[in-house]
Amino acid sequence: MVRKLKFHEQKLLRRLDLVSWEAAGPSLREVRLLRRFGLSRREELVRYQALARGIRGLARRLRDLGPGGEAFRARCASRLLARLRAMGLLRPGEASLAACERLSAAAFCRRRLPCVLLRLRMAQDLRHAAAFVRQGHVRVGPEVVTDPALLVPRALEDFVTWVDASRLRHKVLDYNRERDDFDLAA
Question: Could you tell me the residue range of the domain that residue 164 belongs to?
Answer without folding.
Answer: 111-185
